[in-house]
Automatic annotation (TrEMBL), chain A:
InterPro entries: FAD-bd_oxidored_4_C (IPR004113), FAD-bd_PCMH (IPR016166), FAD-bd_PCMH-like_sf (IPR036318), FAD-bd_PCMH_sub2 (IPR016169), FAD-linked_Oxase-like_C (IPR016164), FAD-linked_OxidoTrans_Type4 (IPR051914), Oxid_FAD_bind_N (IPR006094), Vanillyl_alc_oxidase_C-sub2 (IPR016171). This is Glycolate oxidase. It holds the Pfam family FAD_binding_4. Keywords: FAD, Flavoprotein, Oxidoreductase. Its cofactor is FAD. GO terms for molecular function: FAD binding; oxidoreductase activity. Residues 48-226 form the FAD-binding PCMH-type domain. It comes from Rubrimonas cliftonensis. The keyword Flavoprotein applies.
UniProtKB/TrEMBL annotation, chain B:
GO terms for molecular function: catalytic activity; FAD binding. PROSITE patterns: FAD_PCMH. This is Glycolate oxidase FAD binding subunit. InterPro entries: FAD-bd_PCMH, FAD-bd_PCMH-like_sf, FAD-bd_PCMH_sub2, FAD-linked_Oxase-like_C, Oxid_FAD_bind_N. Keywords: FAD, Flavoprotein. It holds the Pfam family FAD_binding_4.
């Protein structure tokens, strides 16, 4: 995969740039020894690696602004980095870029239960936000599966989702305000502890801009009162089409579960072998449905859902009677990626489709699987249409990764063709950059790039992400 | 020129051509919101003929329709399937004394959100896709029809609440929600404003999923929605939890009461300017008390648990702008002049002035999307 060509002039000025950064930052906040830079050469899309020019690890907004100002003056690209858990290569450096890591911005600044907000520095992990308020009966809703490790900064950059977004929304719906530093080193407050914008919704476009508009150092997040309890139920169905019809009926009946997870036959078998969660191996598809409330409310909702599922001849029904049984139902689903990793290298995609298109999309993925000769298992946030096909390949076999990427690209084009999109929660990054033309016209992309022109006129922030390289080059050339 | 004679393109392509070849325009749906923001001096361009329902899939909770689609017709269509727009769009007509039909485009362009904003999100949170014509006459799309979409930058949010200054919306896509079986409203009486907001904070901090939290005309209201048995249980539990604030009356299914909160109708008949303050909820009553002390506030109505204050002020001089903005800015919030005469809306910036670096970004975006100032010129900023 091509990345922007490093500027030889910047490479030649490495020590001068590092010296200027050291002049404005504490000694231990600047890393430029090559053996230490290796730790920053990739994120969770580890097939692609490139050590950066240098790394800065500021401890305050003022230090972030100082570092950015130096890079702006030096014309050096900057790659913002949270915890480096991006599956899309969102934090992949170029050789001439400075990584700006927010790991040391790790304090909770204010918690207000009466206003239902928390203010954090953005290097804190996603889980630590909930941990800060859970003893008071509150939680932070977005829960990406990397939540133990991923940073709020990365969640904001990618507009991360999670299993519970059907009811609670994704990051952008739970983010109220940010301290934002532009590439020029200008610091501003956007939003706050209130619920809407005074003018244009800049916060809305900053969230999900993949670190290309500025660096978010602090965030005000909505916290919600936790429900009294939650309980899952598991159904096995003969085919994916039957499971899909059941999902549609649940939603039509006015029941909005907090989670509605789908697994196809191959995913069931891989997860069961790994986790021994007691999943029905004879089923062609499985649904895990979780509802919330008091015990009586949960009973009532689950009764409604059971009645709907009964109309689709389930092969298996398992309702959790105890917390242990609930954990067992979730165990297989939550260990899906680990289970897959045990048996094969795999690539995980996250295209979204209209939920009604599920049967068609699954049968076409099956046909593509046969055509490419690569296995695929499907996991799916069924309520919101966010697919997670896991394509299996052998990284040691020459040509297999390329074949896998071509298969993945076909699946994502298929998602767009049926009315969906390339990415529902992982972001475009470098991974899906060149596929943007499948979803957007040249004009659509020009409009998005115009936003970048306003925020980052020299295009120094997070180069090589989101837009096809040739499209960016054309846009930049036309501007000059 | 009257609205009846307005240029009214019948298709997105015609709308694009109109913008490319003409302008500047004042974008008009049904005309109900023309008195919002700074007055615009330009020929009207109507979206009313862009009113087709492109797609409605109840099983996917998804609606896509033209910007000119009438809100009442859409709501009736959704209700027939037991569904609705989640964010309870505000109807500005009682307050503004305007008429004409509300349109989906007008709702999206003004991010018009009602009491349920605290639980189901604002209009901007339900808006999942837009098509639009920018100031050059270029047709653009962003987002789509699926609920989870992080492909490229989120221009949907940017367009929502942009009052048309970045583009003429031609089509909008919304995420929907089921209409619950029933609802209950807890009514507490006789609380002063600070105590009322404290009660609402307690309600919103409870696990009982409150979907409305308001204080108006001496009544403090908390709404619960859902299946019948669940609503009965949660209303009773919440009543116990709020016992320290008095004995709440429980009123079943009372849409009129919530429509009055949504539209701030208690202030509709009163003379004067109406401001819309957006604040940290616990700051709501503090700001109002300070403004009353300074003589810059009369009646106040609280929604969003205290975070949204509708404030009546005398419409003389700057209609209280300097005092209100100083008080609200000090608390990190903002204030919009929602209702005032044309002269006042010319003299006083209706939208809260932004700090210079933020204002520069907003101006930069307006210049990119509408370089010649063809779309609602001056509506948000001169």
């Amino acid at each position: 995969m091509r990345m922007p060509t490093p500027d030889p002039d910047i490479l030649a000025r490495r020590s001068a740039v590092a010296a200027r950064l050291r002049a404005v930052l504490p000694e231990d906040a600047v890393i430029d020894a090559s053996e230490e830079l290796v730790a920053y050469e990739c994120d969770a899309l580890s097939a692609y690696r490139c050590p950066p020019l240098a790394v800065v690890l500021p401890r305050s907004t003022a230090e972030v602004a100082s570092a950015l100002r130096v890079c702006w003056e030096e014309g050096v690209p900057v790659v913002p980095r949270g915890s480096g858990t991006s599956l899309a290569g969102g934090a992949l450096p170029t050789a001439d870029s400075v990584i700006l890591g927010v790991a040391r911005l790790n304090r909770v600044l204010e918690t207000s239960l009466e206003d239902r907000v928390i203010r954090v520095q953005t290097g804190v992990t996603n889980i630590s936000v909930t941990q800060a308020v859970q003893s008071d009966g509150f939680f932070y809703a977005p829960d990406p599966s990397s939540q133990l490790a991923c940073a709020i900064a990365g969640n904001i950059a990618m507009n991360s989702g999670g299993a519970h977004c059907l009811k609670y929304g994704v990051t952008t719906n739970n983010l109220l305000g940010v301290t934002f530093v532009t590439m020029q080193g200008e610091v501003m407050e956007i939003g706050g502890a209130h619920l809407d914008a005074p003018g244009l919704d800049l916060l809305g476009v900053i969230c999900g801009s993949e670190g290309q508009l500025g660096v978010v150092t602090e965030a005000t997040l909505r916290i919600l009162a936790a429900p009294e309890g939650a309980r899952p139920i598991l159904f096995g169905f003969e085919t994916s089409a039957v499971a899909g019809a059941c999902v549609a009926d649940i939603i039509r009946a006015g029941v909005i579960p907090v989670a509605l997870e789908f697994m196809d036959g191959p995913a069931i078998r891989v997860c069961e072998e790994f986790a021994q969660a007691g999943y029905p191996l004879n089923a062609g598809a499985l649904l895990i449905v979780e509802v919330e409330g008091s015990p009586a409310e949960i009973d009532d909702q689950l009764a409604r859902i059971r009645a709907i599922a009964a109309g689709h001849a389930p092969l298996a029904v398992r309702e959790a009677a105890t917390p242990e049984e609930a954990a067992a139902i979730w165990l297989g689903r939550k260990s899906a990626f680990g289970a897959m990793g045990q048996i094969s290298d795999y690539m995980c995609l996250d295209g979204t489709i209209p939920v009604g298109a599920l049967p068609e999309v699954l049968s076409r993925i099956e046909a593509l699987s046969a055509q490419y000769g690569l296995g695929v298992a499907n996991i799916f946030h069924a309520g919101d249409g966010n697919m997670h096909p896991l394509i299996m390949f052998d990284a040691n076999k020459p040509g297999d990764l390329e074949k896998c990427e071509a298969f993945g690209a076909d699946i994502l084009r298929l998602c767009v063709e049926v009315g969906g999109c390339l990415t529902g929660e992982h972001g475009v990054g470098v991974e899906k950059r060149e596929l943007m033309t499948a979803q957007f016209t040249a004009d659509d992309m020009t409009a998005q790039m115009a936003v970048k022109d306003v925020f980052d006129p020299k295009w120094l922030l997070n180069p090589g992400k989101v837009f096809p390289l040739a499209t960016v080059e054309g846009h930049r050339m036309a501007a000059e | 020129m009257s609205l009846a004679e307005a240029l009214a393109p019948a298709s997105e392509a015609e709308a694009a051509e109109a913008v490319r070849d003409g302008g500047p325009f004042e974008i008009v749906g049904g005309g109900a919101r023309l008195a919002l923001g700074r007055p615009v001096e330009a020929a009207p361009l109507s979206t009313l003929r862009l009113d087709a329902v492109t797609l409605y899939e109840p099983q996917a909770l998804t609606l896509v329709a033209g910007a000119g689609a009438r809100l009442d017709a859409i709501e009736a269509m959704l209700a027939a399937e037991g569904q609705r727009l989640p964010f309870e769009p505000m109807d500005p007509r009682p307050l503004l004394g305007s008429d004409g039909p509300l349109t989906l485009g007008g709702v999206a362009a003004t991010n018009a959100s009602g009491p349920r904003r605290i639980q189901a999100g604002a209009c901007r949170d339900s808006l999942i896709g837009v098509r639009l014509v920018d100031g050059r006459g270029t047709v653009l799309k962003n987002g789509g029809r699926v609920m989870k979409n992080v492909t490229g930058y989120d221009l949907v949010k940017l367009m929502c609440g942009a009052y048309g200054v970045l583009g003429l919306l031609t089509e909008v896509a919304f995420k929907l929600q089921p209409i619950p079986e029933t609802s209950a409203t807890l009514v507490l009486r006789g609380l002063d404003e600070a105590r009322a907001i404290a009660a609402l904070s307690m309600a919103l901090g409870s696990p009982f999923d409150v979907t409305g939290a308001a204080h108006a005309a001496g009544e403090t209201l908390a709404r619960i929605e859902g299946f019948e048995a669940s609503v009965a249980y949660r209303a009773a539990e919440l009543r116990k939890a709020l016992a320290a604030f008095g004995e709440a009356e429980i009123v079943m299914d009372d849409p009129a009461r919530w429509a009055a909160v949504r539209d701030a109708t208690p202030l509709a008949g009163a003379q004067g300017a109406v401001w819309r303050l957006s604040l940290r909820p616990s700051d709501g009553p503090k700001a109002v008390a300070a403004l009353r002390e300074a003589g810059a506030a009369q009646d106040a109505l609280y929604d969003w648990g205290g975070g949204l204050v509708w404030l009546l002020t005398p419409e003389d001089g700057d209609a209280g702008a300097a005092a209100i903005r100083a008080e609200v800015s000090r608390r990190g919030g903002h204030a919009t002049l929602f209702r005032a005469g044309q002269a006042t809306r010319r003299a006083v910036a209706p939208f809260h002035p932004e700090p210079a670096p933020v204002a520069a970004l907003s101006a930069g975006l307006r210049a990119k999307f509408d370089p010649a100032g063809k779309l609602n010129p001056g509506r948000m900023a001169p």
